Amino acid sequence: MRFLAIGECMAELAPSDAPGEYRLGFAGDTFNTAWYMARVAPQVSVAYLTAVGEDRLSQSLTEFMQASGIDTRAVQTNADRTVGLYLISLDNGERSFSYWRGQSAARTLADDPERLARAMSDADLIYFSGITLAILAPDKRATLLKALREARAQGRTIAFDPNLRPRLWESPDVMRNTIMQGAAVSDIALPSFEDEASWFADATPRATAQRYLDAGVMTVVVKNGPSPVLYAEGERFGEVPVTALDRVTDTTAAGDSFNAGFFAGHATGQSLADGITYACALSREVVQHRGALVDADLPPLPKG
Ligand code: AMP
Description:
By secondary structure, this protein is of the alpha/beta class. Helices cover 38% and strands 22% of the residues. It is built from 10 helices and 13 strands. The strands form 2 sheets. The protein has a 9-stranded mixed sheet, sandwiched between helices. Strand 4 (45-52), helix 2 (56-67) and strand 5 form a beta-alpha-beta unit. The two termini are 13 Å apart. Bound molecules: adenosine monophosphate (AMP).
């Protein structure tokens, strides 16, 4: 089983214990999912498709991916650019984020349709997100969607997390339109209800699921924080309860780690409900620790 995630991984500067000092890390939504996949499902081949620069920081990112067990053969280099950066500020325990990603190399990841097709031809399960689409120029969004459509026609399974981030888009309308185009090339959608309700005015998780089914998705999994996860497969709907925590430490990468748990279950032949149950256990552990990439003992993937 070969898994390919597509998107942007950024350099992260997070406050360290010493005031005024920052620790360098790397994170980004689809990348976080790839990282967790490599940790919990070492039997799956995990690859990442992005673009980085040729500078030392870009090399460090590539080395970090490789050390994490991620195949970097689909990482392109662009000598004129470097990786995007974000810095986390802490104000009385509240985190806020500043971004420098407008010119990041990842924005060129879909410049070469042949490279996209080649990387996808090697994969069984291909994962992208609304953020992957948002960072691309409009014509490159179309290039990526076309490549995904063709990969799907050739039998690859396409999975999509809408990951709605209106600040990355030209307008809410462009976001909504392009997200539904992303859904139209996908077999699996993994939306988060809170975001979908805000931007698509869905009254219930079931309405979210129905909208993605209507767009042509076969399997929809609607995350909803501590509330049950709703899933839909064709006509069949079901729910998986979440063992809710009263207090979470940091919700960063809750959805990303959930997706990894779900894909790990999918890749090892688990039923939909069992895959979601494992995804809940994994994300439940992740939200109890600070940061996107949690190095704690993660719950083991049940044998498929
Ligand atoms: P979200 O993207 O916020 O909907 O969260 C993704 C997943 O993280 C959820 O489906 C849950 O499995 C898990 N999660 C989020 N918040 C909590 C919580 N308070 N307690 C336990 N699990 C949670």
